[in-house]
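Researcher: Please translate sequence to structure tokens.
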Amino acid sequence: MINTQILEQLQKIIKSEEFINKPKMKKLLEYIITEFVEERGDQLKGYNIGIDVFDQGDNFDPDQNALVRINVGRLRRLLKLYYLEDGKNDPLKIEIPKGKYIPLVTVIEEQKEEEKTTIKTANIKLEDKACVTILPFKNLSNNTDLEYFCFGFSQELSIQLSKYDDIKIMGSTLPFDNINYDQKFIDNLKKQNVRFAIQGDMKVMGNQAKISIHMTDLSDNSHSWGEHYKFNLQDDDLFDIQENITAQIATHLGSETGHINEKRYKELIASKPTTYQEDQVLLMWYFYLSRFTNETHKQFLATLQASLKEDPDSAIINALLENIHGAIYLNALGTEHDKKECERLIEKAYILNPKSQIVQIMMAYKTFIFDEKERFFHIVNNSLKTATNTPLRLGILAQYLCLYGEWDKGIELFDRIYQNNIDFPVWLCGVKSLGHYRKLDYEKALIEANNYHVPSFFWGPFLRTICYAQLGKMKEAQQNLEELLKLRPDFAQNSGQIIRRFVKEEALAKHIMEGLEKAGFKNNK
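Model: Translation complete:
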């Protein structure tokens, strides 16, 4: 349906006054849209366009010859002109982002002016994002040179926290001495919708320094979080200290399941809303993934379905529901209906908001399920350019990079998460276990497998079965095999299909089957 709409929009554009007498521009736009609709967007490169559209020879070099760049620039300007006049009321908007050849397609909803005002007012939420201010850190030492360090520390922490999607930073330009932290000051922050205030100070004794930091929840003036960090002024690089400590603080506070979101999540659950808005659904998804059970799965699926009825054009809700259908298809050998729903929902989400990182990650998930390898790597590489050190977002990308065989890149991402002291989702330990297993390091593989504790989920005993078997510990291997078959009775009939839906490397899939067989497993199919 969506591809049909794009092609209909294409025909309307090339028949417009802007394009009717410009055959080269029509041919160029038709080529770009056709490649995009046929899911060959990753082939939209200067070289291919030069040959296929402008009839250049095989020796065409787009870096030396600006033919394609110039004409795509003309096309970009013509599209802007079209949407200013003929296309201003069109349901779809096609753009060519600057510096790229892959089109951006946006759905435009028709609304009367008074309807827009009503909707805008209805969607204003008390706390769409957690609003945070970082107050200037105080230098409690006698060393006035450290004033600059303390000021820079506050600035660096603001920068680090601003990288997290769920947080809005309210800047503070006041020096510490000008702040009278009384009720009047707190009330002024509240008027700006600031929910959390972060303060800190620095103490020095000899060469040893200590930074103390705490966060106050202004809604009830409670002390929400605090920590101390020690370092050596003489031995350590102050710029490195500033960067490393602020990165740690930001991940503790700002990550998907960090202290700020955890408090917001508890409040959301306690309020027992009958309907959920997009940001609330996203918040629930974070904690659903970190605390997965069969019961939370059913509850979250019901929440998503109800939320989609309330807001059918939410890119985030469509993408998250795609994630659920994809997980059912992969983990539970779901039906073709689940697979089709996975595809339908994410393709719609991608048209609604292709720039959303959540949408991009879920599109990568869909391409993994559908074995669209080239598109998978294209989306993942683009998404990683803007990804922050958030455990769920990075972890999902790392997991599927590994399972697609890009172990070095995937493990590098896992290490990035660990190094920043982020709360690591336990279900990601499964891929780390397989990473060691494929290198025949069964001891390390078992350590990670033992960290995998997700109730009612068969992957933990599955991983422990193959690790114990390869280590020759048959009693433990057989105990875990029994638990695996109890949790997943159909595994004996569908083991190969279950494993290969996740593991794209045939050599690793066979290695896994070898471990199962050593434990006494027999494939009944």
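Researcher: Any highlights?
Model: Residues 387 and 394 are 7 Å apart (CA to CA).
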